[in-house]
Amino acid sequence: MTKEKIFQAALRLFARKGFEATSIRDIALEAEVTSSTLYHYMKTKEDLLVAIMQEGLQTLLENAKEVLAELEAPEQQLAAFVQLHVTSHAIDKLTALVVDTEFRALTGNTRVEIARLRSEYELLWQRILTGGLEQGVFTIENTKLAVLALLQMCTGVAHWYSPDGPNSLEEISLNFSDMALALVQAKRNGQQLTVSDLDLPEPARFFMKPWLGAAAHEHS
Amino acid sequence: MTKEKIFQAALRLFARKGFEATSIRDIALEAEVTSSTLYHYMKTKEDLLVAIMQEGLQTLLENAKEVLAELEAPEQQLAAFVQLHVTSHAIDKLTALVVDTEFRALTGNTRVEIARLRSEYELLWQRILTGGLEQGVFTIENTKLAVLALLQMCTGVAHWYSPDGPNSLEEISLNFSDMALALVQAKRNGQQLTVSDLDLPEPARFFMKPWLGAAAHEHS
DNA sequence: AGCAACCAATCGATCGATCGATCGACAAAA
DNA sequence: TTTTGTCGATCGATCGATCGATTGGTTGCT
Lengths: 220, 220
Description:
Two copies of one chain form a homodimer.
Chain A: H1 2-17, H2 24-31, H3 35-41, H4 45-70, H5 74-91, H6 93-101, H7 108-134, H8 143-155, H9 157-160, H10 169-183, E1 187-188, E2 191-192, H11 212-218
Antiparallel strand pairs in A: 1-2
Helix pairs in contact in A: 1-2, 1-6, 2-3, 4-5, 4-6, 4-7, 5-6, 5-7, 5-8, 5-10, 7-8
The structure holds a DNA duplex.
């Protein structure tokens, strides 16, 4: 479908050059249509950006909520959240980069709406940490700062991950879970917990619905 | 001086709207000169960006090297690095944001040069973690991944810090040091280390040379 | 079956606005 | 008189967006 082709082209270019540096004609060229054709599928260039960001954030949010519904222990939730976030940001690097770096290009209502999605997601992390604190399994001085640190550290994966890199996605995902558990000093019986102590359901990735970009990669 | 005024204007706008979204005329307006005058002080718009990024990265790098010269123990070095990085990114938020988000706008030689500065800085972190591993004071599965995680988590401060926020810069800086020490599981005598165990020289900020933006803020 | 009416899809041409950058003129300072 | 700083005017290129025309497939009426 042409529409999908246009969205994929925009996604690639927004991620590589940034929203402002990408022209309508760039997208048209990449999608192998004329710039006029673009306007048959969208109203403005910003609409493309909004669609990408909404899709990415909503999918992440849905997956996160499913994780919370499946797992109870805060240390399990945290590890699964890290795996979900890291894996999402690696598999669909392009969408993740756009979501994380092009927020300032948004204007008006959509800006507020996207900000709301993001803070809703942050709140889920906040609750996990609070839960872990109440159960005495985490040791955290400041929950809000810890959430910001954890999120930022996991989000960074999108900036450097490559399937050809020295570490597999699974290694990275597990390693980041361990670092997160260490950061909050997750302990049971006075022993520092690692992800291998938690027996999470096989691939935590099981929950993951494909993102926009990942979906296109499947049925190509 | 007019030149300084121009650089400050560019810094503010690049940080707020991004390099590509900022026009020459925007900068001229903000600096209260005409766009022609800009070209008396620079050759291209990209030169402004390069100057900002070089200044920021080089100052950070110099300060980091001084920290390494003053402190020996890896846990001290790590805590001081975190404080330096966090404090830099909070005090001179604008420069930090530009350095961290506008790399892709660079072209040609400068792109390579800036990338070299950045990787040189990363290497210092790498050495600290390796040192801590060799002394058995850190527990880290994968040093490179840990460096990326730590850097990303500290860099994120520039995105949300505000002097009017609920936490003082000192609180944030100390808190992030503790989280970093926890992430690498820094231990002496089997006891998890915190920043208060390390008796660092009074303000670790002592080493900090002012950045471009911070400097202008001083003699204003 | 055949024709008319419709509609989604695509195009080339082009709009006014703005882009980064240049030029020569003019004024103040050295 | 030369140098340094500043300006208005303007360059060609490109920007996001719009327009009417054309195509090809689908529907509905006879």
